[in-house]
Amino acid sequence: MSVGIRAWMVALAVLPWLGGCASDSASRNKSCLPCQAATVMPPVSNLYVIGFGDVLTVGVIDGQETLRESMIDEEGRFDLGELGRVRLEGQTILQASHTLGQVMKLPPERISLHVSEHGRGMIIVLGPAEGVQRLVPYRGPESILDFLRRIDSMRLCVALRTIHVVRPNVALGKAPEIFAVSVPKILEDDDSEQNLRLEPFDRVVIGTTWRAELLELMPPWARSLLLQTCKRCGIEPAQPPAAPLSVPTAVPTGVR
Question: pTM for the whole thing?
Fold first, then answer.
């Protein structure tokens, strides 16, 4: 194929994309607002439920140093040294502060407690390109909006109206659930119900746009040229799919 024909092919592919770039740039403040304040929700640390494998750091406010750092063991207990092993599994950070305060004979507001390492699973992200799967460390019950910002999906501006969270519910023995999420609805309508909190082993499915599909069909040289062109107007398309990760799948039966 001659260089001229190749150039025309790239031009035909780029023109509709550039049109999309213009519209995406105009609507960026509505669909991809990384700097806009999200729905006000309680701090993640206060809502987090402590479980096996979590590493906790305990100290005393106004104290000289950290009192203890230890992992929640198989019995759900935290080792406080001479004060014994205190059961904290199943408690939130606030509840655990009260429990530790009783053992240490201190008011709970003087207890400094936070999770140093979360040991209870991962979040599975599928998309935006077809076949792309990755594991993201679970950091407590953060909102879907905060999670998308953490994995940098807000910057990609891809299919933010068609995100789904699949919750397997295997440990609870319940049927899997699907939650449909619209990022623009969360931002524009301050919809806290849409901005749900993630749980360990949730699957976040990010929809594929027509741009990602077109990118997948292009030869490497055309893909490189297109990515460079779109970056100049502030759009970074989803990359083509990598080798898929082997992840057990659950068959969702209910849609919420």
Answer: 0.55
